[in-house]
Design a protein that fits this description.
Blueprint: H1 5-15, E1 26-29, H2 35-38, E2 52-58, E3 67-72, H3 79-88, H4 93-96, H5 100-111, E4 120-123, H6 130-138, E5 143-148, H7 151-164, E6 172-177, E7 194-198, H8 207-217, E8 225-230, H9 236-246, E9 250-254, H10 259-270, H11 281-284, E10 287-292
Parallel strand pairs: 4-5, 4-7, 5-6, 7-8
Antiparallel strand pairs: 1-2, 2-3, 8-10, 9-10
GO molecular function, one term: calmodulin-lysine N-methyltransferase activity
Keywords: Cytoplasm, Methyltransferase, Nucleus, Transferase
Protein name: Calmodulin-lysine N-methyltransferase
């Protein structure tokens, strides 16, 4: 719970958290008595804390089991979270919830699973990593690295990898603390075939470091690409794409990239779907950005 109203108000202003979402992936919250359901002992240091909740996501494909993600209860931000944020120069948005763009990214990746076949994949700024976990469970990727710059978020990711390990088959799945503004480990430079990210372009002060992270981590080949889903949010997305151009990368910006997502978007705009009453295209509809080293054919 927020310590005072001022902290909550500042976070709401920064993120404009949606009260609803596209809901492309069905989910339900489990009660506090679920260790047997998960098949993973949540005892001792792994015991569920009062601030946490377990969300079960039913991925929309074949016979894939449900993915279980332990995450914070809604708006359950503590004073220590802001201290960690200041110390590591990161934001706390990854702790707040699974954002609407992450839901769309996860759905998009599942729907285009062929993109990840035999590929080494990195999710940047993952938050709880629904997209990364979906890729790990539903595609034939060879390796999936789920990364965030907030060490508290990375702890959740690592915990959730342990819980869901049985769903990944032979795929290597790992958590990584990756701060865009810091020097990246030499062993991962230009090694990823595909990079994915959602709603990572809001903070303009991170644009340059995010762009350089893409060019530093993406494998230098014609086939490799970064896939971003992000709302415009004023001129934030355009400012990020300007950085992408400046460092010599090429991109495509696509508004209508999936029929289901587009139809939902149109219904929200026209009031034909009332499940998202505060829907705002500029802040909530994620555009698809494909980024490559070489020009698109």
């Amino acid at each position: 719970m927020f310590a005072d109203h001022g902290l909550q108000e500042s976070t709401d202003n920064i993120s404009r958290k949606a009260v609803s979402g596209f809901n492309l992936i069905y989910w339900r919250a489990l009660d506090d008595h679920f260790p047997e359901t998960l098949g993973y002992p949540l005892k001792g240091k792994d015991a569920l804390k009062p601030r946490d909740i377990c969300i079960l996501y039913k991925l929309p494909v074949g016979n894939i089991p449900e993915i279980s993600l332990i995450q914070r209860r809604g708006n359950c931000i503590e004073l220590n979270d802001f201290e960690v944020s200041t110390r590591h120069d990161v934001d706390t948005t990854g702790l707040v919830c699974c954002w609407p763009s992450e839901d769309v990214l996860a759905y998009f990746c599942i729907s285009h699973s062929d993109v990840f076949r035999s590929k080494k994949v990195l999710e940047l700024g993952s938050g709880y990593g629904l997209a990364g976990f979906s890729i790990a469970a539903c595609t034939d990727a060879s390796e999936v690295v789920i990364s965030d710059g907030n060490p508290e978020v990375v702890d959740y990711i690592q915990h959730n990898i342990s819980i869901n390990a049985g769903h990944f088959g032979e795929r290597r799945v790992s958590a990584m603390m990756l701060h865009w503004s810091q020097e990246h480990p030499s062993e991962i430079l230009n090694t990823f075939d595909v990079i994915v990210a959602s709603d990572c372009t809001f903070f303009k002060e991170f644009h340059e470091s995010l762009a350089w992270s893409v060019i530093s981590l993406l494998k230098h080949s014609e086939e490799s690409e970064a896939i971003f889903l992000s709302p415009k949010r004023g001129d934030s997305l355009e400012k990020f794409l300007q950085k992408i151009r400046e460092i010599g990368l090429h991109y495509q910006l696509i508004e209508n990239y999936d029929e289901t997502v587009w139809n939902l978007h149109q219904k929200f705009l026209k009031g034909k779907n009332n499940s998202w009453p505060n829907y705002d295209k500029d802040h909530f509809y994620p555009l698809l950005v494909r980024i490559k080293f070489f020009p698109f054919s």
